[in-house]
Specification:
- By secondary structure, this protein is an alpha/beta fold.
- It has helices spanning 38-41, 49-71, 90-107, 116-120, 167-178, 184-192, 222-234, 239-265, 280-293, 303-306, 310-320; strands spanning 7-12, 17-24, 28-36, 80-86, 111-115, 135-140, 145-152, 155-162, 218-219, 269-273, 296-298, 326-327.
- It folds into two domains: 7-127 and 305-327, 2-Layer Sandwich (Nucleotidyltransferase, domain 5), CATH 3.30.420.40; 135-300, ATPase, nucleotide binding domain (Nucleotidyltransferase, domain 5, 2-Layer Sandwich), CATH 3.30.420.
- The chain is 40% helix and 20% strand.
- Strand 4, helix 3 (90-107) and strand 5 form a beta-alpha-beta unit.
- The N and C termini lie far apart (56 Å).
- The model has no long low-confidence stretch (mean pLDDT 92).
Length: 351
């Protein structure tokens, strides 16, 4: 039986995950297949662009065929294709874009170009949460750490950005400093869980950006890496304590910046996503902050939906149909840079 509703195809290939998904009505995932390249990149402790793009080429057709089988659908039943077009590795993005263009050329279906970062904020739609605008979008991933005010699909206003490294990148580098495997996030969290601080424990590292005063809210994670390296070189602290203090210091800044923006904008709906949200410690801390501060918090419960996946691309594509993001021809390009449209400045934000 053919599922009722608008069924779309999502394609994600912005970095080192090849993913194909089939989505109904922007809210139901009929198939979401992800091929991870972690093992291929692990020896380099980072993503190698040439390896990534080649792996996408090798896997994307197979994943598409498998997705159709899993969902029990045919190509003719798909009504649009949405694809990541920015930001990311250009070679990797090109693989997904070319697949989408080929699909559109053969089927005559429209293509919706999706900003990968914005798509993360629509991942909760696949777990029953319809977007309520405006909301604050907290994005913490390997390549980005930012908070947006989201006025509607394709309408993002950047409120806070990182001054240097992204949160996920900092965890990867911290893991390397501590001698832990790649990718770093899960291993740092696991090591941190082995330390149980007493009430009198004093954090090894100072609060990040503690002297910014009334400067615009921002993230910064380069200093904590340097401090961690010096602490490791000192040799007087166990790995578990170092991991705990690193993680605690990073998450304290995340909480502080988020709370400041909730208070200054008056927006009490927060959507959090990105690979770092797979961290259980961060989830617990944000839930506690939401309860104590009176704002509603939504994030993907599925860790698969926190990381890069095509389901979120398909979901956002559904909401972007019939907008300027729907390409009328096949000449569109991909970009390594994120897209921020002109947005209404938030009058409630203090300078």
């Amino acid at each position: 039986m053919t599922p009722v509703g608008v069924i779309g195809l999502g394609i994600e290939s912005s970095c080192d995950e090849t993913s194909v998904a089939l989505i109904r009505n922007g809210s139901e995932c009929l198939a979401n297949l992800v091929h991870s390249q972690i093992e291929q990149h692990a020896p380099f402790r980072g993503v190698v662009p040439e390896i990534a793009s080649r792996a996408h080429l090798e896997k994307i057709n197979t994943l598409y065929d498998r997705a159709l089988v899993e969902a029990g659908l045919s190509t003719e039943q798909l009504e649009y294709v949405s694809v990541s077009v920015r930001p990311g590795l250009v070679g990797s993005l090109m693989v997904g874009a070319q697949f989408a263009k080929s699909f559109a050329l053969v089927t005559g279906r429209p293509i919706i170009g999706v900003d990968h970062l914005e798509a993360h904020l629509y991942a909760p739609c696949l777990e029953g949460h319809r977007p309520e605008f405006p909301f604050l979008g907290l994005l913490l991933s390997g390549g980005n750490s930012a908070i947006f005010m989201v006025h509607g699909p394709g309408q993002l206003e950047l409120l806070a950005d990182t001054l240097d490294d992204a949160c996920g990148e900092a965890f990867d580098k911290a893991a390397a400093i501590l001698g832990l495997p790649f990718p770093g996030g899960p291993h740092v969290e696991r090591a941190a869980a082995g330390f149980h601080p007493e009430a009198s424990h004093r954090r090894l590292f100072p609060k990040l950006l503690r002297h910014r005063g009334d400067a615009p809210p921002a993230f910064s994670f380069s200093g904590i890496k340097t401090a961690l390296l010096r602490a490791v070189q000192d040799g007087s602290h166990p790995v578990e304590l170092l991991a705990w203090d690193f993680q605690d210091t990073v998450f304290e800044l995340v909480e502080r910046v988020l709370l400041r923006l909730v208070q200054t904008t008056g927006i009490t709906r927060v959507v959090a996503s990105g690979g770092v949200l797979a961290n259980q410690t961060l989830r617990v801390r944000l839930e506690k902050l939401a309860r104590e501060s009176g704002f509603a918090l939504v994030y993907p419960r599925s860790r698969l939906l926190c990381t890069d996946n095509a389901a979120m691309i398909g979901a956002l594509g559904y909401f972007l149909r019939n907008t300027a993001f729907q390409f009328r021809d096949l000449s569109f390009d991909v970009s390594s840079k994120r897209y921020l449209p002109p947005a209404r400045p938030s009058d409630s934000l203090r300078p």
